[in-house]
Design a protein that fits this description.
With about 200 residues, the chain is α/β, with parallel strands linked by helices. The chain has a domain at about 75-170: Dna Topoisomerase Vi A Subunit, Chain: A, domain 2. Helices cover about 40% and strands about 15% of the residues. It has seven helices and six strands. A four-stranded parallel β-sheet has the order 4-3-5-6. The chain has a two-stranded antiparallel sheet with strand order 1-2. The longest helix has 15 residues, at about 150-165. It is globular, with a radius of gyration of 22 Å.
């Protein structure tokens, strides 16, 4: 007797949802079933996905998402300092920095970080466009705002080497103690970075 399973279209949808980051087979199945259990949930999602597919793309210059046929508000703003570029891993990092209000320059989204184990090489990232941009815009400083994990450190090291050969000042985001945190909740690596990144008061 054959085992019972969902119809093939439903299986394919679950497989696609399961491939999204952070979702396993059970979470994907629950999401798909939730979508199907009530009328009016699937169509708006389909419409939104189609609109994103047709009208949203990455800016050729900075890599942040923009609507087709629209100018990038970051790259074309006259209020931003175009001589300082902040390099981030993903477009979501741009929003985090913008919401902090801490940066007034322009951004460059790499689209990931170097990871030999995952076969992510410099050619897979937007490194060449960064180097071209640095030369064309006569940039004074590049701030590397990539993660502090092993892959992030490797990416920062690679980029700083490439940029220094171009004579560009390269800096890295300070790392260390979180605001409002005590020493008892901080790991050794964070303490090490905080100690070496200390500043005079």
């Amino acid at each position: 007797m054959p085992s019972l399973d969902y119809p093939p279209p439903l299986q394919r949808l679950i497989a696609h949802i399961k491939s999204l980051p952070g979702l396993g087979p059970r979470s994907a199945e629950r999401l798909v079933l939730w979508l199907l259990q009530s009328q009016g949930r699937v169509e708006p999602l389909v419409d939104a996905l189609m609109a994103v597919s047709e009208r949203v793309h990455a800016c050729d210059q900075c890599g942040f998402f923009i609507e087709r046929d629209e100018d990038c508000v970051l790259c074309h703003s006259t209020k931003r300092n175009h001589q300082i570029i902040c390099v981030v891993e993903q477009a979501a990092d741009v929003l985090r920095l913008e919401r902090s209000g801490a940066f007034g320059g322009v951004y460059h989204v790499l689209g990931g970080k170097l990871s030999p184990l995952d076969n992510v090489t410099p050619e897979d990232l937007r490194i060449e466009p960064l180097l071209e941009r640095v030369k064309a815009q006569q940039v004074d400083e590049v701030i590397l705002a990539v993660g502090s994990d092993v892959e992030g450190e490797a990416t920062a090291s690679y980029l700083s080497e490439m940029l220094r050969t171009e004579g560009i000042a390269v800096s890295r985001l300070a790392q260390g103690m979180p605001a409002g945190g005590g020493l008892d909740h901080v790991d050794e690596l964070t303490l090490y970075q905080a100690m070496h990144g200390r500043r005079r008061l």
